[in-house]
């Protein structure tokens, strides 16, 4: 039987007067692979921030039994120390950040998350 890793119950998030996310119930189980798809402003990033514990709902409950990591694509890397083996595994170039492509910046952010 797969373990429940995350459970959201009766979640509601609003910005100003607009409800951007309503979730009656969502469970993510061990080994689940999920995709989050929707229009701009549909609440995709908000859901990910909820799952990672970066924001709390105004209403509802979150039961999380695992660690989640989240990074914003638009923010620059944090310039944290990165484990040496990840640099090679992810093919992160040794060059100035302004020379990185979008994909290389994403790899760098992923390496930072796994280098705790």
How is this structure best described in words?
With 116 residues, this protein is an alpha+beta fold. It folds into 2 domains: 4-64, Rossmann fold, CATH 3.40.50.300; 71-116, no CATH class. It has helices at residues 44-52, 84-89, 102-114; strands spanning 4-15, 18-29, 59-64. A hairpin with a 2-residue loop joins strand 1 and strand 2. It starts with a strand and ends with a helix.
Describe the protein's topology.
Elements: E1 4-15, E2 18-29, H1 44-52, E3 59-64, H2 84-89, H3 102-114
Antiparallel strand pairs: 1-2, 1-3
What keywords describe this structure?
116 residues, alpha+beta, Rossmann fold, three-stranded antiparallel β-sheet, 3 helices, 3 strands, globular
TL;DR?
The protein is α+β, with helices and mostly antiparallel strands and 116 residues long.
Anisotropy-based shape: globular
CATH architectural label of the largest domain: 3-Layer(aba) Sandwich
- The percent of residues in helical segments reads 10-25%
Alpha carbon gyration radius: 17 Å
Quaternary form: single chain
Beta-strand fraction estimate: 25-35%
Let me know the average pLDDT: 89
């Amino acid at each position: 039987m797969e373990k429940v890793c995350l459970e959201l119950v009766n979640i509601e998030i609003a910005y100003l007067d607009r409800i951007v996310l309503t979730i009656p119930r969502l469970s993510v189980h061990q080994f689940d692979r999920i995709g989050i798809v929707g229009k701009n402003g549909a609440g995709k990033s908000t859901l990910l921030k909820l799952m990672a514990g970066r924001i709390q709902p105004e209403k509802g409950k979150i039961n999380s039994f695992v660690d989640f990591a989240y990074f914003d694509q638009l923010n620059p890397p944090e310039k944290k120390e990165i484990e040496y083996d990840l640099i090679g595994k992810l093919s992160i170039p040794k060059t100035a950040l302004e020379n990185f492509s979008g994909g290389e910046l994403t790899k760098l952010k992923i390496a930072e998350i796994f280098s705790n």
